[in-house]
Amino acid sequence: MDINPLANPKGVKLLCELCQIPAFIQCKFCNVTYYCSIEHQKADWVGIHEKICDKLAFLRQPTPFLPSREEREKRMRQIAIKKIELIEMTRTLAQKMLFEGKHEESVPAAMQSLRYAIDVYGVATIELVPSYLILGEASIGLGKLSQAEEYLAKADWTVLKTPDCSRAIKSKLYRNLGLLNAAKGEFQDALTCFADDIYHASEEFGTDDIRTAGGYFHMANVFFRQGKMDVADSLYRQVIDIWHEHLADVIKARTPSEEEEAMSRTRVLGPVKGMFEDVSSGMDEAQEAEAIQILNSIHDIREHQTNRRPEDLAQTCHALAMLYFVFNDIKRAKEYGRKAIVASDEVKDDDFSKSLVEFMKLCEKQGAQI
């Protein structure tokens, strides 16, 4: 990463990408982004700039002279599309980093999404709320609760004055308000917010959707912190059931049947190489990171419980094994698959045992092709 110290051109006010104070360092790759210090340049590079440097070069360069109205309108449409793509990309990356526990690193991406959302949609529109929520969650993770309250208050006010606001956005708002209250130790208020989160997510996506599962998970965490393990266990169980079914469906939908395998073997070119290469999680990067966070957290809790039910650990391990399988991490898929088999030895469930055996066979097939 090169830097280019500069003296601001006369009459031109250059501002730092992160803090908006006067800037004296220019990115030498895009030549349109500026920083007040090397520290802020490095933070932005790690957080988001490396991934969007070329996109910013296109968006921020001076508009060339275009002789016809048609050409000017075409360019304006291109710029608008690029800005919307940038908003979605930066939000997804920021949310992914939050699920990975990288709260500070997520801020530059979230700020970038907010900046372009304001540019495209205006200063007081519902389209800004997802960026406010990400910034609020990042602030909670960093322990900056007053700052988090400011971001979430802006989001809450915007939602209140938008009658047709989607339930998906309301769900995310209440989830973040729940996280804020939990961080403040206000557990009853947190539970109320998570209940609202689950209600709106259920109405939008269904009670057994992975986008609803996060609300159950965070509610379980509050009961866990209060020492109410019976309730927490019940909710963790529900989360695992949702993810287990989702991942099983993903693998089933993308695994060739016996007939398809037989047909592939009869082709002139022989068996199709990498028959599972199209296995995907059916999730974006943020959802994948959320799955890793949630399933591993519950697994850690299950492993350290002295009075756990063996079927709870077995199903959690199986869900993790399937998750890593769709990520094509066959080594970890097998590792958790074996742990599920060990845990299932105490479970008298023939169907579950059979599903584990079939899953391990899939792992062997996939592993042989890598």
Helices and strands, with pairings:
Blueprint (H helix, E strand, L loop, with lengths): L2 E3 L19 E3 L6 E2 L2 H23 L8 H31 L3 H19 L7 H13 L3 H16 L6 H17 L3 H19 L4 H16 L3 H26 L3 H9 L18 H20 L5 H17 L3 H15 L5 H20 L1
Give an overview in words.
The chain is mainly α and 370 residues long. It folds into 3 domains: 52 residues, no CATH class; 104 residues, Serine Threonine Protein Phosphatase 5, Tetratricopeptide repeat (Alpha Horseshoe); 145 residues, Serine Threonine Protein Phosphatase 5, Tetratricopeptide repeat (Alpha Horseshoe). The chain contains 14 helices and 3 strands. It has a 3-stranded antiparallel beta sheet with strand order 1-2-3. Strand 2 and strand 3 form a beta hairpin. About 5% of the residues have low confidence.
Q: According to CATH, what is the class of the largest domain?
A: Mainly Alpha
Note the overall shape. Answer: globular
User: At the third CATH level, what is the topology name of the largest domain?
Assistant: Serine Threonine Protein Phosphatase 5, Tetratricopeptide repeat
Overall strand count: 3
Mean pLDDT: 87
Number of helices: 14
The parts where pLDDT drops under 50 for at least 5 residues are 7-11, 268-279
Number of domains: 3
Helix fraction by DSSP (H/I, runs of at least 4): over 70%
Distance between the termini: 34 Å
State Rg.
24 Å
Helix- and strand-based class? Answer: mainly alpha
Physical arrangement of strands within the biggest beta sheet: 1-2-3
The biggest sheet, with number of strands, parallel, antiparallel or mixed sense and barrel status, is: 3 strands, antiparallel
